[in-house]
From TrEMBL:
<comment type="similarity">
    <text>Belongs to the tetraspanin (TM4SF) family.</text>
</comment>
<keyword id="KW-1064">Adaptive immunity</keyword>
<dbReference type="InterPro" id="IPR000301">
    <property type="entry name" value="Tetraspanin_animals"/>
</dbReference>
<keyword id="KW-0472">Membrane</keyword>
<keyword id="KW-0812">Transmembrane</keyword>
<keyword id="KW-0391">Immunity</keyword>
<feature type="disulfide bond">
    <location>
        <begin position="157"/>
        <end position="192"/>
    </location>
</feature>
<dbReference type="GO" id="GO:0016323">
    <property type="term" value="C:basolateral plasma membrane"/>
</dbReference>
<dbReference type="Pfam" id="PF00335">
    <property type="entry name" value="Tetraspanin"/>
</dbReference>
<feature type="disulfide bond">
    <location>
        <begin position="158"/>
        <end position="176"/>
    </location>
</feature>
<feature type="transmembrane region" description="Helical">
    <location>
        <begin position="12"/>
        <end position="35"/>
    </location>
</feature>
<dbReference type="GO" id="GO:0008289">
    <property type="term" value="F:lipid binding"/>
</dbReference>
<dbReference type="GO" id="GO:0002250">
    <property type="term" value="P:adaptive immune response"/>
</dbReference>
<dbReference type="InterPro" id="IPR018503">
    <property type="entry name" value="Tetraspanin_CS"/>
</dbReference>
<protein>
    <recommendedName>
        <fullName>Tetraspanin</fullName>
    </recommendedName>
</protein>
<dbReference type="InterPro" id="IPR008952">
    <property type="entry name" value="Tetraspanin_EC2_sf"/>
</dbReference>
<keyword id="KW-1003">Cell membrane</keyword>
Length: 238
């Protein structure tokens, strides 16, 4: 005997929320894959300065998002099927998965909040080291120049601060994008440190919005799944 009345409405409401949850998982997976293969981040984070690799903290977060998106799609499907079949076992499993996912999301959010400034700071330090090497390099064998040019071309900037960004083209014009001119740098100074901050803060902003939306959906789903479980149990008694 199936559920009736308000419990039946909750059943279909849970199905709709799970479908949205499944779609949200697909969106997170898509955004994570886009961030993983975005030309700006890949050009910078795949760089190597001598034996030193560019900081990969950002990619750690991206791989976590890929895993979360894939798991969310599986859990969303499990919830949809469990709601339609009115299975207490599937709904109980779904609820347990949601609790684990919610805990992982909170932990990932705390990790991201703690490391959000460190990511940009590490990349800026890596850039500064490459910039100093590029200025002092006498030969093309030192890859500091190649690393710096990749930063400049990818982010459309020149130098770690405005002052150096203006002066650098005077003696190392080959380090900056060709479209940059001395007059342009005087009028619109391009600061690579600022561009790096904008790059990573923009990415983290997108991730934060997606995480908040998913967290709200998960809370509603946990409540609805427990109410539906109780409704199924009570309906089986009569």
């Amino acid at each position: 005997m199936g559920v009736e009345g308000c419990t039946k409405c909750i059943k279909y409401l849970l199905f709709v929320f799970n479908f949205i949850f499944w779609l949200a998982g697909g969106i997170i997976l898509g955004v994570a894959l886009w961030l993983r293969h975005d030309s700006q981040t890949t050009n910078i984070l795949y760089l190597q300065l001598g034996d030193k690799q560019a900081p990969n903290t950002f990619y750690v977060g991206i791989y976590i998002l890929i895993a979360v998106g894939a798991v969310m799609m599986f859990v969303g499907f499990l919830g949809c099927y469990g709601a339609i079949q009115e299975s207490q076992c599937l709904l109980g499993t779904f609820f347990t998965c949601l609790v684990i996912l919610f805990a992982c999301e909170v932990a990932a959010g705390i990790w991201g909040f703690v490391n959000k400034d460190q990511i940009a700071k590490d990349v800026k330090q890596f850039y500064d080291q490459a910039f100093q090497q590029a200025l002092m390099a006498e030969s093309e064998t030192n890859n500091g120049k190649a690393v710096v040019k990749t930063f400049h071309e990818t982010l459309d900037c020149c130098g770690p601060d405005n002052t150096i960004g203006v002066i650098t083209p005077l003696w190392r014009e080959d380090l900056c994008p060709k479209k940059d001119s001395f007059l342009k740098n005087l009028i619109e100074p391009s600061n690579c440190h600022k561009k790096i901050d904008e790059l990573f803060s923009g990415k983290l902003y997108l991730i934060g919005i997606a995480a908040i939306v998913v967290a709200v959906i998960m809370i509603f789903e946990m409540i609805l799944s427990m109410v539906l479980c109780c409704g199924i149990r009570n309906s089986s008694v009569y």
